[in-house]
Amino acid sequence: MRARNLPGRAALYVLVGAIVVYSLFPLYYAVLTSFRSGAEIFSTALLPTSVDLGNYVAVFREQPFGRNILNSVVVATAVVALSLALGVTAAFALARVRFRGRALLLLAILSVSMFPQVAVLSGMFELVRALNLYNTLPALMLANLILTLPFTVWVLTTFMRDLPVELEEAALIDGAGPLTILWRVFLPLLWPALVSTGLLAFIAAWNEFLFALTFTLSNEQRTVPVAIALITGASQRELPWGNIMAASVIVTVPLIALVLAFQRRIVAGLAAGAVKE
Length: 277
Fold this sequence. Notes:
This protein is an all-alpha fold. The protein folds into 2 domains: 1-52, no CATH class; 55-271, MetI-like fold, CATH 1.10.3720. It has helices at 2-34, 54-62, 65-96, 102-112, 117-130, 137-161, 165-173, 178-189, 191-207, 210-215, 224-229, 241-261, 263-271. The two termini are 39 Å apart.
């Protein structure tokens, strides 16, 4: 039996290896190129021949890239906090409170996430201008909620529905109110879901480009995707690819670190569907 399974296992390993190489090779080549300078950048060698940190130094010297990273951290963190705070309360109402039109409201929330960014760009621009938030970080926080909040509400509602009704009934018998049930009973059980949805919201806000490009004007207010896209050389034909690759590696490392740090909770959150008794 084992001999018969060898070809299948070998094919599986080859397929997995091909997927890993296909997924990781762009990142590897970006790291490799970030350590090259001059004509060596266009070399096709797949192994490093030298290590030059000049591109990383130039990224921070030629533009306020440190400020751009800080802007992205502030915007992404605020978006995650607002999405989870609003998402948890909305999910509690949609999952545990019975009222007319609940299914229609949940469908409407999901439908918002189906619209492309371009479709809501003009309306969001008018809203940002009316609130006098143009070229400010709160404008990006408000705009990014359109991308993260519907998904957060939908996922947390699904998890909230799977929590045992007996827990809620026991808390009601003890005299707990809705907010107490939410924060003291349900919230500790939702940590895997909160971590997984929060991380996905953070990644979406960190990588968002269109709103950041439209609603910011100065280098000091831009986030890292726009800052990288606007890196230019002496002329349009002489793009500093080494600087671009170095900046791309710098902004990718935090996301990889977050995923590795919370990978167990992410898997638990995505696999959870019920609470063990």
